[in-house]
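Subject: mismatched residue count in predicted assembly?

I count 708 residues in my input, but I want to confirm that the predicted structure covers every chain. Input:
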Amino acid sequence: MQIGIAAHSSPVNAKVESMVREFLRELRASCPQATLLLGGYWGLMKFVVDEALKLNFTVVVVLPVERYDVELPQGVIRIDTGAEFRSRSVVLVRSSDVLVALGGGAGTMIEVLMAYAMGKPVYVLTDTGLSSDALQRAFPDYIDDRRVVRIRYFNDPIKMAREVCREAPRAVKISFG
Amino acid sequence: MQIGIAAHSSPVNAKVESMVREFLRELRASCPQATLLLGGYWGLMKFVVDEALKLNFTVVVVLPVERYDVELPQGVIRIDTGAEFRSRSVVLVRSSDVLVALGGGAGTMIEVLMAYAMGKPVYVLTDTGLSSDALQRAFPDYIDDRRVVRIRYFNDPIKMAREVCREAPRAVKISFG
Amino acid sequence: MQIGIAAHSSPVNAKVESMVREFLRELRASCPQATLLLGGYWGLMKFVVDEALKLNFTVVVVLPVERYDVELPQGVIRIDTGAEFRSRSVVLVRSSDVLVALGGGAGTMIEVLMAYAMGKPVYVLTDTGLSSDALQRAFPDYIDDRRVVRIRYFNDPIKMAREVCREAPRAVKISFG
Amino acid sequence: MQIGIAAHSSPVNAKVESMVREFLRELRASCPQATLLLGGYWGLMKFVVDEALKLNFTVVVVLPVERYDVELPQGVIRIDTGAEFRSRSVVLVRSSDVLVALGGGAGTMIEVLMAYAMGKPVYVLTDTGLSSDALQRAFPDYIDDRRVVRIRYFNDPIKMAREVCREAPRAVKISFG
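Triage response: the counts match. Full output below for your records.
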């Protein structure tokens, strides 16, 4: 299973970092075979990559052309899309069986909407204090009236990790149906 | 000036069609040199293209790879991106000096968020009864706390057209600054 | 008809400029409705754009992300792909009913091979003294054993323009068949 | 080190399969840490993926949008670019520290020219009986007069594998210089 992670391009506060750490540990316990895909190696994305490597996840970083030359830690698989930020997000989201948004700004929200439009299961961490918390108020269930997939919101990162591992493999079959 | 139009991929009700017609007529009067860019030739997008051609606008249709073979009316410039729906939207939005959202679903909202993230002026028609009306409630001013550009909402299509033509040429300079 | 022009990213000698001028004049006479697509506004591509504008062609410039901010002359339609050089070439070639290579380096040759692989009619100007002259020796007829489309080589730019205008509209139907 | 493999989209004869097997075994012996990137899972590309998995290589398959739903073997990392064949090749080549062409048609040759244009080290297997054998005659040293990187041709797959592993890490530094 390939899990795409949408996360802030800037560093975040300690509370979110702590939630992210809990999420990753539970993910490691519940679906140890998962490969994680991130859209860069800076901000919260860098924090996720570093924590995931400590937990021995396979990690793929899907880089936009604007940052193709960022240095990645040993062992990370590098995809250099040659495409600007938003087009790089398309590669990230399409390559993911499910998308998990751990908090961020417009880029993170764009990836959530893209995943929805592609029919991928989407999980959003709330109560982060970041701009993406607005998604739950704006779109409590679905993004539009096509009702493609229900957006799942969680303020408990451990519960979210368990749901991702429990439901995702089943959902994948739908999303490519 | 190149004006990107985000619009529903399905047909819409007569009220929205009427608002769109008013918008285009006023646009033709206020900035007759504008070139219009659309992301397809179906649904509301087709309606916009057909009306724009009647008004003698230059029209560019930026096609996703899934619909590369759609037939376009004589005189329309066809860009075949070879890229799936969301990546095609990147080409559309980046090629636009301003983005105008005339109402739609997730695809339209993604284009609004992309334009914001790229620092382009964004104008959104409201009171359409379509899913994109949710944007104003969710993001009354800015999409995230970077406050890149203020989203401008209008329920009056004529006023919106005038604002697009009055402010856009100035804004362009900012967006590439 | 949309005619893609593959041309050198550097300036070329006076002989090639003269051949290009002849080609464009004859093209204007033989298929005045043609829209020309170029991949940039520098080197020989800039020369072609400037000459084409003098002849009142509609011109579209399809920009790579690395050069998104190049200034274009008034009246040119700008497509900002957000994609690096080679991916931008895909948009250029796919958007063209036929591809004409007026001489260049690796980029020009890549576009010729792309057009072949997409099944588009391809016309190559020879005797330019540029690297792309190697194509005729390497691939006198077809690029590979699938024999998708025969590459047409011309050392006479006027004859080439006439052939483009005579055969292209017919060929288009095949290439999307 | 990430090694991109350009290979035919159709099955090939037993001689080439045998050369490919020798290449991969030597590669496994000489640079066991290498990750292999392929552009699909059909034709010779499928053969390479299957052999590489037997040798316990990490394998990434970079899919074009036209074939996004091809089933991959367990353990392979899937990148779904959402981009058509040639744009997918850009992601493949840009993500590779070096490109190795094992024989093919226009698609393989396009990837060789792309790698050259990006300044990546390129290794081409010759005497395959496939269309890509034409490259050596056409471009014995360089693709164009910019002389970006010298194309390296080998009819001995074992020697080629050793050279890839010996020179590539050094070359990478140049290609992003």
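The domain at 2-169 of chain A is CATH 3.40.50.450 (Rossmann fold). Marking this ticket as 'not a bug'.
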